[in-house]
Amino acid sequence: MYDVVIIGAGIMGTFIARELSRYKLRIAVLEKSNDVANATTKANSAIVHSGYDAKVGSLKAKFNVLGNPMFDKVCEELDVPLRRIDSLVLAFNEDEMTTIGELYERGISNGLKKITLIDKEQVASLEPNLNKTVLGALRTTDCGIVGPFELAVALAENAMDNGAELFLNNEVKSIDKVSEGYIVHTNEGSYKAKYLVNCAGVHADEINNMVAKESFRIKPRRGQYFVLDKSAGNLVNSVVFQCPTSMGKGVLVLPTVHGNLLVGPDSQDIDVKDNFDTTLDDLENVKLVARKTIINIPFDKVITSFVGLRATPDTGDFVIGEAGDAKGFINVAGIESPGLSASPAIALHVVELLKSISGGFEEKKDFNPIRRKLTRFYELSEQEKTEAIKRDPRYGRVICRCENITEGEIVDVIHRKAGARTVDGVKRRTRPGMGRCQGGFCGPRVIEILSRELGINMLDVVKDGVSSKILDKETKGI
Fold it and tell me: What is the pLDDT of residues 190-200, one digit of tens each?
């Protein structure tokens, strides 16, 4: 029997698993997909928000403000990229000036210290490429950008290094209440646990309804993005917002932690919970709206587009807590923006909830919060590169020329805990295929390396999901 089973291996499930792995517990994480971080976590704006936007007194406000300063330590421990930068919410007319004034007051009420209102001239000095019709902006200086899927992978790896178990391709079909806790039935088997934590994202309401009465509903909200080449990465220095609406924070323009430019998302409520399709009309609308922020965004430098789904709850706030009619069953649901920013604080809160329900957990004396560092070959000095190649000649073979990723780096991320098993899994961990050619040149070599290192036929290497085959048959057999 497991002490705790966590359903979902996105940013929340992996954060909670890592925090629970500090204790002498048997922990299992069940994920329906072929990898961790394969839904909302892999496709969002990657922002560590300051915390001015959430309603005063809400769980969103509470955990955002608590979670933001926790990222520096966590990302240092786990060797995950994080950059602290400014954020600006722009006002283009007097009504929007009133709105950013209200956001300022809300930020002060939420406990923010690094927040100010600035005028047109100050905005121009910070961001000279913005539309000249800007009247002013709300500025915070404690915003951040991070690699969200890299963080979730690192959390899962560190949790597993400390004893947690991860079960991929396990979709929950039903849950039974038993005297000792719960039995979770998946397409792959059954898992017995004293306590369950529901981190199932857009499907969290369905999981809740398997064991408890319906108390909330999740509506998927789709957002589409453009990623631009690194040659456009310096167009802005800050996370630049337009004034928020009832549908969210609107179309953003921001640098990514790896030096690209990200533009998006739009916002549409949809009915299909796994619809990750981009549409031409909606992407064109993203361009149109974004040009209000910067007129001359170089969309000719787009290298890819993608869709993210937000788990929007009908409660208007995060759903966090023990279900009233299911003892030991904890919902962590409706974790839409600022969910990433709030995630470390939510994880600590969930651990405290479980401790209060169980009577407490015994801490491990040998818990190790430090993840073994990645070798990022392109960041090394010439001497360090020479030494790395001497230790392992595979670091001397560049596989992805766009991102300067070597064979040694790819092999490393395959053989770690929660390691890469797919082409996209390698891409999210160490970036081959993230550059301007989007895997056009390095993709075949990544397939070869996965085949060799996993001991599987090249025909069995998949792009992402178990059915996303890349190769059909050998050409010599045709």
Answer: 999 999 999 99
From start to end of 379-436, where are the E strands?
398-400, 405-406
Closest CA to 184 of 195, 170, 172, 197: 172
Q: What is the mean pLDDT of residues 231-257?
A: 90
Question: What are the extents of the domains in the chain?
Answer: 2-40+149-217+315-358, 83-144+219-311, 377-473
pTM here is 0.96
Q: Residue 76: how many CB atoms within 10 A of its CB? A: 12
The whole-number average pLDDT for the span 59-82 is 98
Catalytic residues: 49
- The helix or strand, by DSSP H or E, that contains position 188, with its residue range, turns out to be none
Distance CA 239, CA 456 (A): 43
| 114 pLDDT higher than 90 | yes
pLDDT at 274: 85
Integer Cα distance of 311 and 222 in angstroms: 9
Asked if 6 and 28 count as a contact pair (C-beta separation under 8 A), the reply is yes
CATH code: domain 2-40+149-217+315-358 is 3.50.50.60
For the domain covering 83-144+219-311, report its CATH number. 3.30.9.10
Q: Single out the residue of 39, 38, 9, 44 nearest to residue 248, CA to CA.
A: 44
Q: Report the alpha-carbon distance of residue 446 to residue 441 in Å, rounded.
A: 10
What CATH number should be reported for the domain whose range is 377-473? 1.10.10
